[in-house]
Amino acid sequence: MDKDPLELVGFACAASGSTGAVTACAACALALMQLLSVLFLQVSKCSEEIKNYIEERSGEDPLVKGIPEEKNPFKEKGGCVIA
Length: 83
What we know:
Blueprint: H1 5-14, H2 21-37, H3 43-56, H4 62-65
């Protein structure tokens, strides 16, 4: 979205004029309540938390440490001999 949500709400309230003002104000109030229910977090803080979460669990991640040979369902069971 190009515009700030608060600008859009302000535009809707200003454009309402005298007709339908109650409906427009109700729509504005609803839009503001929805906007306030969203939790805004800084990207730097979120990315740091995600990085820490991944690093804490990397020891048990099979994509990082690999799958033990005895538990690997995709290991080759036997070789193929072409005669």
